[in-house]
Amino acid sequence: MRGDLVRKLAARVAATGLAVLAFLTLALTGATGWGLALAVAALAAAGWERRVRPAAASTAEAELLAAAILVGYSRRLDAGFDPALAATALVLLGLVLLVGPLRQAGDLEIRAANLPVRSWTPLVAARLGDALLVLLAVVALAAALVLPAWVALLVALAVGAGAGAVAADLAKRRFRPGAGGSAVARALRAHRPEFLLHFSAPPGSEYQVTMWLPYLERIGRPFFVMVREPEFLAPIAAATSAPVVYCPTLKAMDEALVPSLKVAFYVNHGAKNSHCIRFSQLTHVQIHHGDSDKAPSANPVTALFDRNFVAGRAAIDRYARAGVDIPTEKFVVVGRPQVESIEVRRAPATGLANPTVLYTPTWTGHHADANYCSLPVGETIVRGLLARGATVILRAHPYTGQNPASARQLARLTELLAADRARTGRQHVFGAAASRELSLVDCVNRSDALVSDVSGVISDYLYSGKPYAVTDMVGDGDRFVERFPLAGSGYVLRRDAGNLDEVLGLLLDTDPKAAARWGTRAHYLGDFPAESYAEAFLSAARRELEPGWNPPAPRAADAMTHSPTA
Q1: Per residue in 43-60, is it b (16+ CB within 10 Å) or e — as a string?
Q2: How far is the C-alpha of 330 from the C-alpha of 87, rounded, in Å?
């Protein structure tokens, strides 16, 4: 989060500072060439700011730069009043004033991918700001080359014509909508989806959806994904053949929620979920994007949903332990289908000469009470693993880069692993190779043991039957296992990593908790046959789509018979 703030602040300072400097140079000095160069640099900075802050308003900077460039152009021509240059100024002024409102209007339009519709207007509206920056750069170049003013005017008129077409189409959509609704709404009605996945989250969170897409597709019923932020439209659409619809407003949601829908699934507790839960004709099912003993995994907001699909009985106990009162009949134990491809090791593998260890530090969280990140002692952990001859797979949380300190600590670990790989030839895996080229399942299957912070990775790893260590970064000491019961079947590494040698000995040499983990596995992940593990989720989802289905309490209770033995 702090890293984002630094980048946004730097972009704002660069764009504004260079614009002011360019204007002062062109307006108050005779250094026209330098002033135009500064103007182009300011435009580049403004473009960077638009990448860092997509919603950034740059009207003032654009006006300042347009005025500065026109002053420089007039000086270069040195021909007195030029009607073409005056007309160019008027077109630029109109564009500067219109681009922001048109982009905002386009942002309010429903958009879709993987549907037979063409929503070109909102896409073009979103790019008008970039087009304006390019136009100003072209005018600056024309000034620098002392081209006739009509050249700049023709380019400006071309961009203005495009903006006019966008404005006309947006106005038509707003004031004269079609009788059957938007093209997206009509295409959705033709698609006849029976369920949707509603998704809202911070940037970089699309993994929460993509982990579920294969299983939603295996349900075998038509569906679509509704995203509430525009940056998720393209990456999620690339991961599925199902329609993906961007609904920025409640009005857009009204259009997208077609009569054929029966169920809405959710993968997190995003605030915008409430926008969809208000549709009482749907059954609302929370399926989560991981299972862990973290505090957010017992969020009281879960009580809002009609059903709460959980991996195992442990999740239900977690809510009770946190004092969150949710009726038993709302819970359905479905396992964690994403683990079905994890290879299970039944026999303990101890005393390996060159083990492969997966290390998965989590991020610092939104709040201090959810900070389980072990990166402050990550170097000690990695050095300890290297000293034991281990090959390390380092897979950090996707949000790690949002904290500058965590990013630096992670960079230090990659340096250590790269240096050791060069020196010893051990094939450590880190960076993009661990986070993008390999899936979490790949990393689990390649490893012999895990070192992790409190996170959902441990639950997934538990399915393999292999040993794991958990870092106690909250400093709970003897109370740690009480607060995070999954650590009871693992080996707890203290906050200062002072017991690292002892923990690594238990983890890699003797593994005395190997037998106990199987009971914990059933408690956390359900006791379903390995050959049909994902069917528990698929069957539960299909039942929700049956007309009039309302599972009685005894059925839910029967599904939750597993108790911990560890």
Answers
A1: bebbbebbeebeebebee
A2: 66
Question: Do 115 and 176 touch, CB atoms closer than 8 A?
Answer: no
Indicate the pairing of strand 223-227 with strand 195-199.
parallel
Give the strands of the sheet with 449-452, arranged side by side. 391-394, 356-360, 449-452, 468-471, 491-493
Q: Name the residue type at position 488.
A: G
Measured CA to CA in angstroms, residue 63 lies from 37, 39, 60, 95, 277 at distances of 17, 12, 5, 10, 43
As given in the structure block, the two tokens for residue 305 are 């949903």
Is the alpha carbon torsion for 215, 219, 223, 226 positive or negative? negative
Write the CA distances from 177 to 124, 167, 171, 174, integer angstroms.
Answer: 19, 15, 9, 6
Residue holding tokens 């300190």? 405
DSSP-derived secondary structure letter, 429: B
Burial of 354 (0-12, 13-18, 19+ CB in 10 A): exposed
Q: How many CB atoms within 10 Å of residue 458?
A: 25
Please name which of 193, 277, 309 lies closest in space to residue 242, comparing C-alpha atoms.
193
Q: Which phi and psi angles does 309 have, rounded to 5°?
A: -75, 125
Please give the Cα distance from 525 to 486 (Å, whole number). 11
Tens digits of residue pLDDT in 35-86: 889 988 988 888 888 777 776 667 778 888 888 898 888 888 877 778 999 9
Asked if 360 contacts 399 with a C-beta cutoff of 8 angstroms, the reply is no
| Model confidence, pTM | 0.77
Cβ(338)–Cβ(547) below 8 Å: no
269 contacts: CB under 8 Å, gap ≥ 6: 286, 296, 299, 301, 302
| Residue 497 near residue 326, CB atoms below 8 Å | no
Burial zone of 219 (CB within 10 Å; 0-12 exposed, 13-18 middle, 19+ buried): buried
- For residue 471, list its beta bridge partners: 493
Helix axis angle for 149-175 and 83-107, nearest 10°, is 30
Alpha-carbon span 71 to 204, nearest angstrom: 43
Cβ proximity of 360 and 469 under 8 Å: no
Instruction: In the chain, count H helices and then E strands.
Output: 23, 13
Q: Under a CB-based contact definition with an 8 Å cutoff, are residues 116 and 187 in contact?
A: yes
CA dihedral (9, 10, 11, 17) positive or negative: positive
Separation of alpha carbons 325 and 82, rounded Å: 75
- pLDDT tens digit string along 198-249? 999 988 899 999 999 999 999 999 999 999 999 999 999 999 999 999 999 9
